Amino acid sequence: MLTYSVPLNDKKLFIRWFLKNFQLKRREGVWILNYLLSNDDLLKNVHFVDEAHYCPRSIVMSTIETTSIPFRFYKENIMTSDAEKAFHDLRINAHEAIYFQLNFPSVPPDPLYLAVLEENPYVPADIFISEKDRLAAERLLENSVLEFQEQQLLKEIDEALDSGNKERFFELSNLLQALKHTK
């Protein structure tokens, strides 16, 4: 099992990308995601997972392109579609872990999404994927993250060249070489 803390910046990049590229079925979902962007203490406790309904405290939101439920908030044994209750709970319990499932068209999965997607620790063991599939998914994730980082570095190298920043160019080129050696 990968145990890894997703950096806040990765979460923010993903949320901004998601809000820019998709429309949620419920506008309150946009408010909630924007609230996450403005509250680092809360965002530290946010985990993006699949099958969030298994988690003790979770929110499931869907985009208009899906047939999934528009909005659900789960807390212990209670489920509601009242986004205001979810928002209120987020505000008063910002120190508690909260799991988000965003249903949106993600085939193939975007590297920004893969960078924040975590394994759901609450999914019952009998519905886990095989070890072979898990390892393949892990390799796909690692390769996707490396590919994304390489593309970002290439973009920044181009910008350094365009602006004539020789020092930045060499710094980024060294980072790119180091990244290629990790592949």
UniProtKB/TrEMBL annotation:
It comes from the Bacteria. Residues 140-176 form the IDEAL domain. Pfam families: IDEAL, UPF0302. InterPro entries: IDEAL_dom, UPF0302, UPF0302_N, UPF0302_N_sf, Virus_scaffolding_prot_C. Belongs to the UPF0302 family. NCBIfam families: PRK03636.1. This is UPF0302 protein B857_01243. It comes from Solibacillus isronensis B3W22.
